[in-house]
Amino acid sequence: MEPPGEGGEMAAAALRAAKRALRGELRRRLRALGAAERQRQSRLLSRKVIGHPKYQESKRIAIFLSMPDEIQTEEIIKDIFMQGKECFIPRYKPHSNHMDMLKLSSAEDISSLTLTSWNILQPSDDDSVREEALAGGGLDLIFMPGLGFDKKGNRLGRGKGYYDTYLERCMKHPSGKPYTIALAFREQICESVPVAENDVQIDEILYEDC
Asked: What is the pTM for the complete model shown?
């Protein structure tokens, strides 16, 4: 007779191994993607976003500041301010799965941000002036980063759980869960992404061929 919980532990270990293997494969795909191709797909997605009905009707929008292996979001951020919308960006807390979405005052405000050890620009830890989205009116739309996605809306992140945890907090806010759109290179689209019960599905995934 097997000890209680052993089957669950084996399943969890198999899931972690499957995610780890897929992350390795996706990182290889992204390393092989040239700068010109990354820029081409980023521009195409920026146009898709700006014409998207959910984007057009949203007033309070959270968006990530891109790392080199992610869809570049600069043009979208500029348009958010041109359209008079409110823009929120992540501040990740190291050695945890806690993230806040803090208000950006302008596209130029990005140059005042701190570069973290992960090479990500974000508001500094002692910045208490910026509005946190959930302390105010919540969010209408979140643009999601990630390493890989499948067409069912499953997302493979980088393994820290920041966005899943934040979306759980959003669900407790009076305004409810915001609409979520993932921005992906077509090389990040997978046949199937291994997921656990607490992995939150994305409402929509935008990529070149969708």
From this structure: 0.91
* Side-by-side strand order, sheet with 189-190: 155-156, 148-150, 189-190
| Least confidently predicted of 60-74, 98-112, 149-163, 175-189 | 149-163
Query: What mean pLDDT comes out for the span 1-15?
Result: 69
Cα(152)–Cα(132) distance, integer angstroms: 30
- Retrieve residue 79's tokens: 């348009």
Q: Which helix (H) or strand (E) is 204 found in, with range? A: strand 204-206
| Long-range residue pairs from 43-52, CB within 8 A, at least 24 positions apart, any chain | 43/75, 44/208, 45/71, 45/183, 45/206, 45/207, 45/208, 46/72, 46/73, 46/75, 46/76, 46/79, 48/206, 49/76, 49/79, 49/143, 49/181, 49/183, 49/206, 50/75, 50/76, 50/79, 52/181, 52/206
Spatial contact of 177 and 142, defined as CB atoms under 8 Å apart:
no
With cut-offs at 50, 70 and 90, classify the pLDDT of residue 8.
Answer: confident
Nearest 5°: CA angle at 186, between 108 and 115? 30
